[in-house]
Amino acid sequence: MTDTKTYTLIDGRKVATEIKQEIRLKVAERKLAGKKIPHLAFILVGDDGASQTYVDNKVKACKEAGFHYTMMRFADTISEEKLSKHITHVNNDEDVDGFIVQLPLPPHISVERITDKIRPDKDVDGFTNRNFGSIISKVPLLMPATPFGVMELLRRYDIKTEGKHCVVVGASRIAGAPLSMMLVEQGRATVTICNKYTENLEQYTRNADILLVAVGKPGLITAEMVKEGAVVIDIGTTKVDDPSKPNGFSIKGDVDFKSVAPKTSFITPVPGGVGPMTIASLLLNTLRATELRHP
Questions:
Q1: Are residues 162 and 268 in the same domain?
Q2: Are residues 161 and 257 in the same domain?
């Protein structure tokens, strides 16, 4: 099948830029009214190149949105106890509205224990148990950033979820699990969630009105696994060797875009789809955290 370009490409970069502009206007209004300006803090442990790039992009987004920000860097030899003390300090700093502990952390530090120490009302990643659980409440607090970004893309492209069959492939705490809950609670969809133990995956994906994939397995979803006219949201991002690129690698999604796209009505690219929305969601969560504590 040839690519007839009959589908709509969901442009995450464009939507993220629009969101940042909207946030910037709200921050400017708060400043004029003498209200608190959002302040986002970052904790970066070690010198992992990818983590540094992610944090740099988040700092850039803070500048674009008019936020205050603080960067805290620590060597990868820092003990869990010392890192916990720094988190307590940020928790108690009333000028900081939200903060992020950039993952991954060194092996000797427990991600679960560190995440559990973050104040829920400052947890703009939406990882704490309280924020995760609030997804099924009538008034969600700070939602996990990547699923929040996906829901915002669906909303802004006017993709209806109510009554639709959504199939989520991948059940991670960061993406698939909270996304499935948000699709049920906020999207009023019928949701099937698949994981690495699911047998005959294609029998589920072929029945999806909206297929959302977040497993980190490049090219997992092929054309024969998708029904005609489906909406496909590719959340996967994997770095693969690519000698044709100046930096020696490419970022690939979980969907074989070239073969799948012509069968879809809407599809996200990788990169440029869900990725930019994660940072935009962090900004939205930080603004919400500020508004809740400083109306």
A1: yes
A2: yes
pLDDT (average), residues 285-295: 96
Q: Which two tokens stand for residue 37?
A: 């300006």
3-class DSSP assignment, residue 250: strand
Helices (H) and strands (E) in the chain, counts: 10, 11
Ranges assigned E (strand) in the chain? 8-9, 39-45, 68-74, 98-101, 165-169, 190-194, 210-213, 230-234, 238-241, 249-252, 264-267
Domain limits at 243? 144-274
Q: What is the pLDDT of residues 121-136, one digit of tens each?
A: 999 999 999 999 999 9
Nearest-angstrom CA–CA distance, 268 and 47: 31
Within 8 A by CB and 6+ apart from 56, the residues are: none
Q: C-alpha angle with apex 164: 8 to 189, nearest 5 degrees?
A: 115
Percent of the chain with pLDDT over 70: 98
The residues that are catalytic are: 58, 102, 125
Full DSSP string of 120-132: GGGBTT--SHHHH
pLDDT of residue 51: 81
For residue range 249-268, list pLDDT tens digits in order: 888 999 999 999 999 999 99
